Amino acid sequence: MTRPHASADDLKSTVRAKYAALATADDSCCGPSGSGGEAGLDVDMSEDYADAIATDADLDLGCGRPTDHAGLQPGERVLDLGSGAGMDAFVARRTVGPDGHVHGVDFAEEMVAKARANADTLDYDNVTFEVGDIEALPVESGAFDVILSNCVLNLVPDKEAAFAEMHRALRPGGRFSVSDVVHAGALPDGLREAAELYVGCVAGAMERDLYLDRLREAGFSDVHIATEKPISLPDELLAEHLGAAELDRFRAGDAALQSVTVVGRRPDTTA
After folding, report:
1. Per-residue confidence band for 191, with pLDDT thresholds at 50, 70 and 90
2. 3-state SS assignment for residue 143
């Protein structure tokens, strides 16, 4: 049951409950069909993801491949925001190697437990996972070279706080690569007020240019979109939350949803 104009705490509770269920059962993220990927987005997975898929760490929750644009190097320390069952962390740990480390943070205890179990199964010793809130990260300031995130930041009610925490967690000169869902134009109210679609990365989406501006206001430089892809939602899914007339206006208008991977860096003020 959804409630219009839900508070941030209500939305957090909804997201936490949904992802806890995904970690412990064969649930679907985006609508009744569970068509695969956030909002039915088909994300191409390479052999780099074989271990994640083999341990069920790939729960079809991603909307991109942020590791492709992070420029990861051996020995680097990586923070994975909303690490889920460990998918992107397991890909990143290959590149950073035994001298590097990947630390995942997720606020669903069940997801963290699943990620830890997966790491144990794979015998990975350069990854760790911790329960925590992206708006108040349980990590030391300046502790990481790189931040990754995959279709999670748009689920955070206070994005300005999340972006500020990203800036704090990165060392000067550190960088980020985050995949997320954004929109151009105005989304219908029904789309924004549907908590289930919020969990599915749609109603929580921020306007594209505003998303980039907020990252810059948080202190990041060189912020730009590395990749983008349109998202098309099926009418049967939208019809659950929009009236016929509102759905027609949405289809005929200029509003659009996109999956983007955004990169940027914390300026090196020590240079």
Report:
1. confident
2. coil
